[in-house]
């Protein structure tokens, strides 16, 4: 399968012969009548298939990563490949992933359906509108916006919302920088009350975070009602329920709440559902999708955004606690390239073998391994293989990991699909069957917000302590007033460093972190300490990806990545 | 079935037992493998099912109406009911309709899937996201917007577009008046170039008009490339193709171009596809959906927005000429209520029987009948029955119609479904089998824009002539420069009167119409003379419909209309 080097992801995906989705369902003992097909290769799964007794017996595997380079280290590719590998060694495994956002498909990032011979298909559909979940989330978000501005506009039914306090923004799943900062309601009395506003990209919507945190349809509706909008002129907090918005919003999400079934290139089941930001939100698929996966197979491979300091921490402390999920194994994805980067290589030197740099860069991986153990989980390191990796570098990593009692396994899913992932699959299964992993969250939600942040900063980031800006101290008082002390914290920090300073690579020490301000997602149920400037609406590059896309008269696409 | 009075539309729809969509397809001799199911009750039909030889043999029936009251006279309900009636008398008939817009569902208007016992189902899905077509159109529209603003922002690749000349607006399928008039690109150099902009509701997007005019996927792409955006600083016109946007936009529309199959309450086929505005656009479903209907059944019932002076005129002169479609029959929907209105009844008097008013109001229907005959089509009048209609009033209409050699038939689809529509079905079939209808367009596209407008104004509206504002005269020069004289005209006029003055009811005479300005849809392929202020983004009412909506824990919806 050496042609992975020569074929683009979309070419590999298009050469693949897909299995009808009813046959994928059938392999999972799901009746054709129980799924809602969206064409021949996508289906929605009803929530009634979630089965608590099966969840308990199944094995949840989290795929996370070391501190990444800007290109990412291949968590999705590794998750898909590991699932192929598990099935290859005779285990019934399903991969459960986030849905890609449409906007970045036309920007720099491109889609997010894996790569090479470790992809989920139909790749084009997954990267485009898929089953309409993002669009439904967008509509629910923007209905609430329209209801807010309509309430301000009309004299009767008016709640007295102070337009200057509104924190709820509109969203659009498009890389559109011109919508970041806008003025709405212009043009006279018929067109609303003028005020500042802006659009975020759809994955940054709290509705997305809510959908991913919801335990049931009932819970979804309640969470939607709990969304904080702003204050009245006399400082009363206003929630979505005050606008009687939660039923209409839930109506718009009646199908979006159902997890989506697709397949991997090797015809194994993939559930793809929800895709919240990994900085201002939890960065992992819906709780319902994870539970669905656990209900229909013996092994579930899932992932969380960015490095383990962000993705795994939130996955374990927020999602697992909230959803009562107990991961049995943890895979830490590393690339030799990223280790060189942490060892001081410049971007131009990423592909140059250099054991000294890799050895120095290992400090980053070492800290992540230590962190995983703090959750009671001994990780397996997956070295996502690149052609430029040298044997010396790989052996070095394996030796250093072995000293920490951790297996480091070469993962060749990109080039070889499941065949290249059986070693990793065996290592993961052996870790689970060893039975030593006992998941424990890092903190108790009952701690104060400040205590929770301190815990994460010291234990996970390795910081000496936490400083708070004046704004953050004010915000903490607001959090108190609104009664949000018991919520978990969803850290919004750069993914490029353990610290909040993106230039500190490897394993920084002797630093403090700075909480600049807080946001809170009262619907989703977490408080967000903001440690830096967070991008919520990307832009397009000078030459947008759209310029190189092509679709022929029969609907065959090229140039999508 | 007297409970139609007591049950809401959604209650009737929910009590109905739907047939699996594969069985609906099977009745049409379409193989299950050839459709793309979206759940059990919706499917997309591939364009390969369109068959020119079958189209020629099938019978196209256009349902239009007299000049309506603000509530509308029930064209959709009549179209669906007539289809049930035709099937009841043994004819294979399909109804082909527009897709409802989501925004108005939360506003005053509500959904648009028929009413009473003449509905298409699943009503909730059709009125909500359906198969995602509107969302895809929205994304294609807004990708072009993002590409425009990105091009203005960046120095390299810059086309020199003058931001003040940009006519392309963003869209959102939401009633959101605060987005009508906005300023974008604020907040510093990273956030784009500040300029005035605004959002229209999605049905007002030219992408919607294009999808509805497209003859094939190839044609769609070409039309998308032809969208006019604005001028450069040196007055060169800029089109979407100059931004290399048409492929990416077409990729976003790859599924949206396929017509959607659903069913009527009585299990007959319904194709629902596309929904452009009836004022600034053509107000009728896609050409491809109409051709699909004609390819799979012997009779196709379809409709066009507003009264016959707008909907039928555009349907016949733009859509039929462009798509080479030849309607065999025309149904003019009238209500006694609307005739009372044209005869001088106030809104409070709409339900009071009054033969004098109905007799005076008949002037309106009379003019519409005369107009239909100008297209070579002798209409059948469908009196959409209301409980407040008196026998005297009905007989009066029937007698007056008979004098014009036109049958006027009581249509009871709302209360009785197909059973109440067999008389109308018989009358329509007899009109078709009579063979006297010979469709001829009113004008030749080769006439000048002014000649085309004059033709419509005098022949259809009954105006004495046409006046042009200074702006309109300037715009006509622009139309000349851009080489658009050969396009048909898509009149943007009030639907409340034959004239451009909405207070002139019945059959006004001695008036002239005023063209204030022109717009042009170079992608869709028509020039739009604007005769009044056109609403392109509705608002929500003081108490939005969303406040009364409810969805239970099992996903059952109430309060949707």
TrEMBL record, chains A, B:
Q: In which pathway does it act?
A: One-carbon metabolism; tetrahydrofolate interconversion
The Gene Ontology biological process terms listed for this entry are: tetrahydrofolate interconversion
Domain of life assignment: Bacteria
Q: Does the keyword Lipid metabolism apply?
A: no
Q: Which reaction does it catalyse?
A: (6S)-5,6,7,8-tetrahydrofolate + formate + ATP = (6R)-10-formyltetrahydrofolate + ADP + phosphate
* CDD domains reported for this sequence: FTHFS
Annotated ATP binding lies at: 69-76
Enzyme Commission number(s) from the entry:
6.3.4.3
**What GO terms are given for molecular function?**
ATP binding; formate-tetrahydrofolate ligase activity
User: Keywords of this protein's UniProt record, alphabetized?
Assistant: ATP-binding, Ligase, Nucleotide-binding, One-carbon metabolism
Family listed: Belongs to the formate--tetrahydrofolate ligase family.
Q: Which NCBIfam families match?
A: PRK13505.1
* UniProt xrefs under HAMAP family: FTHFS (MF_01543)
* Protein name (database record): Formate--tetrahydrofolate ligase
**Primary gene name:** fhs
